[in-house]
Design brief:
By secondary structure, this protein is an alpha+beta fold. It folds into three domains: 193 residues, Heat Shock Protein 90 (2-Layer Sandwich), CATH 3.30.565.10; 123 residues, Ribosomal Protein S5, domain 2 (2-Layer Sandwich); 235 residues, 2-Layer Sandwich (Ribosomal Protein S8, Chain: A, domain 1). Helix content is 35%, strand content 22%. The chain contains 19 helices and 22 strands. The strands form five sheets. The chain has an eight-stranded mixed beta sheet with strand order 5-4-3-6-2-1-7-8. A five-stranded mixed beta sheet has the order 9-10-13-11-12. A four-stranded antiparallel beta sheet has the order 16-17-18-22. Helix 1 crosses helix 5, helix 9 packs parallel to helix 10 and helix 16 crosses helix 17. The radius of gyration is 28 Å and the shape is globular. The structure holds adenosine-5'-diphosphate (ADP) and magnesium ion.
């Protein structure tokens, strides 16, 4: 009988190995981004189409590859990161198995452009199902531009198992989050189907978390820093009252790499014992640094599971570090340890806002910019000495607990607010547009708003062309807090509105105005989400002519200066003008 054993061809072996490394588009995102980080990139851009099913592209400004290395990188067990078995234990870079690229190239169409910084030209490689289709020199920016198209195109059974775009994209965002949290010093950008999903300039860890999860998290973070002979633990845990019903925002980094570890997770939860109610989960991001020799990371092909040599000790260190941090926070709440200027918690002016206005309640306790605070500093001292006259009391204490001069509304359009060096004149409509714009954008991108149900759902009718447009905006409107769905031809049914929108009854005109704004701004070359946030802000902002109470004005001012960009509306119109005292002085002395 003839021999029947044969060696599998490389392409099949690679496909099999690929099953271990690449489960879904998110796995490719992870491998490519980790390679970019290993290559020393300081700026990494992720571009995804169709939840990664059509294309995943990672563009980095790292070291790049020589023509030979570019070709070699797709061979199985090719890696620049280890050369002998012992290296496995000392490895600090992310990739170390030399399998990822070979695996990816076996099950997708890969287009690679790469250039080293000291070279004039780069290499362009196209590989499909492990076959090199093209290799030529090309012009390209220094670094590596990796595109992976049509994942599993040659394994239909695997492709069929991919989940819906929403689910696959969620997985991609999970991987993306884990990576960007581990590297706040790196500039990251992410795009999906042409729209910018994340824009994350290099920053402190605290600010990175705020950029990722929204401003509200800033007040919820308790910093941790603990150093022992075995390991160093840094990061943040969430205040107990911020615990959520769903798990999710819980991260362990080990030597700057995301890991999962049920045992250590337990240590953290134990530290929260009696502080949170059962069934809720605290936020945590704990970064553990430890001598790599004391860890075996290589037990899992995608390297998320690890074995610690001193597991129990690590457990105890984590538990007591978290417990200690939480007890410290009880004594000294919300100190900004990094003194990051944009996010110093002010804790001031939690003004209750009149129910009639469109001011979001989520902003009721805004962190205020340092520089902004400084504008007002000393005002108490330079202001007229507290006289006991009723007039002064009227002006200064109209709202009870007054801490600065009450703002004044002029022509029902502008707000005059005294600051240390003079005064500000705020355009109420532009300012409110800016506030709502940032709020909506944040809701669309990160934190969907909560909804208040209408007791009686409302049917809304639109002309066909408007209905088509509205249909395409539904996913965004839902994130903003509208519960709305199509209802036959050209009609929609509204079940709920954003919790902060309390002008019940005006929804219909709000949508009409929004759609009209869209028509007037068809040429606006912005991403859909940015456009929607800006136009929605414009449609729902309070307009000139609206009379505001002192409380409302102060709330507006606080919210404006809690914005990332308080200076201009989304459409670039000024939100306020500053008048300096010496300017005034000279005007009178002309
Ligand atoms: P590993 O990361 O485990 O070494 P990979 O298959 O992911 O294996 O990558 C193989 C090799 O290709 C890497 O060791 C590295 O030398 C090179 N490489 C991959 N991606 C990049 C990149 N973005 N920039 C520079 N070199 C890269
Ligand atoms: Mg790798």
């Amino acid at each position: 009988m003839a021999d029947i054993i044969q060696l599998l061809p490389d392409s099949i072996a690679n496909q099999i190995a690929a099953g271990e490394v690449v489960q879904r588009p998110a796995s490719v995102v992870k491998e490519l981004m980790e390679n970019a980080i290993d290559a020393g990139a300081t700026h990494i851009k992720l571009v995804v189409k169709d939840a990664g099913k059509q294309s995943i592209q990672v563009i980095d400004n790292g070291a790049g590859m020589s023509p030979t290395d570019a070709r070699m990188s797709f061979e199985r067990h090719s890696t620049s990161k280890i050369s002998k078995a012992e290296d496995l234990f000392a490895i600090k870079t992310l990739g170390f198995r030399g399998e990822a690229l070979a695996s990816i190239a076996a099950i997708a169409q890969v287009d690679l452009k790469t250039r080293q910084h000291d070279q004039e030209v780069g290499t362009h490689l196209i590989i499909e199902g492990s076959n090199v289709v093209k290799q030529e020199i090309c012009e390209t920016s220094a670094g590596t531009n990796f595109q992976v198209k049509n994942l599993f195109y040659n394994i239909p059974a695997r492709r069929k198992f991919l989940k819906s775009n929403t689910v696959e994209f969620r997985h991609i965002l999970d991987e993306f989050q884990r990576i960007v949290i581990a590297h706040p010093e790196i500039y990251f950008e992410a795009f999906h189907n042409g729209a910018e999903t994340y824009h994350l300039p290099p920053s402190t860890l605290r600010k990175r978390l705020v950029n990722l999860f929204g401003k509200a998290i800033n007040d919820k973070l308790v910093p941790i820093e603990e150093e022992t002979d075995l390991c160093k633990i840094t990061g943040f845990v969430g205040k107990p009252d911020a615990a959520k019903k769903s798990r999710g925002e819980q991260f362990f980094l080990l030597n700057e790499r995301f890991i999962k570890n049920a045992y250590l997770n337990h240590a953290v939860l134990l530290a929260y014992d009696n502080l949170i109610s059962p069934g809720t989960f605290p936020f945590y991001l704990l970064s553990i640094s430890m001598d790599p020799e004391r860890i075996d990371i290589n037990v899992h092909p995608t390297k998320q599971e690890v074995k610690f040599e001193d597991e129990t000790l690590t457990y105890n260190i984590i538990r007591s570090a978290v417990r200690y941090a939480l007890s410290q926070y009880n004594i000294a709440p919300s100190i900004d340890f990094e003194q990051s200027p944009a996010f110093s918690a002010s804790g001031s002016s939690a003004n209750p806002v009149s129910g009639k206005m469109l001011i979001p309640s989520s902003f009721s306790k805004p962190p205020v910019m340092d520089s902004w605070e400084q504008l007002y500093q000393g005002l108490e001292k330079t202001a007229a000495a507290p006289s006991k006259s009723t007039l002064t009391q009227l002006v200064n204490f109209e709202d009870g607990n007054e801490d600065r001069k009450a703002p004044v509304q002029i022509h029902q359009s502008y707000i005059l607010s005294q600051i240390k060096s003079g005064f500000l004149l705020i355009d109420q409509q532009n300012a409110h547009e800016r506030i709502l714009y940032e709020q909506y954008l944040n809701q669309i991108r990160e934190k969907p708003s909560s909804t208040q149900k209408l007791i009686f759902p409302k049917t809304l009718n639109f002309p066909t062309h408007e209905a088509v447009l509205l249909e395409s905006l539904l996913p965004y409107l839902q994130k903003i807090g509208f519960e709305i769905e199509g209802f036959g031809k050209d009609a929609f049914i509204l079940h709920g509105i954003p919790a902060h929108l309390s002008n019940l009854g005006a929804e219909e005109s709000l949508f009409h105005e929004l759609l009209q704004q869209f028509r007037m701004n068809v040429d606006l070359d912005w991403s859909e989400e940015k456009k929607l946030a800006a136009l929605m802000a414009r449609s729902s902002s309070l307009k000139k002519g609206k009379i505001m109470s002192v409380t409302e004005m102060k709330s507006l001012i606080d919210q404006l200066f809690a914005c990332e960009v308080p200076f201009k509306s989304a459409f670039g119109k000024k939100c306020f003008i500053t008048f300096e005292l010496d300017q005034l002085e000279s005007k009178f002395n002309q």
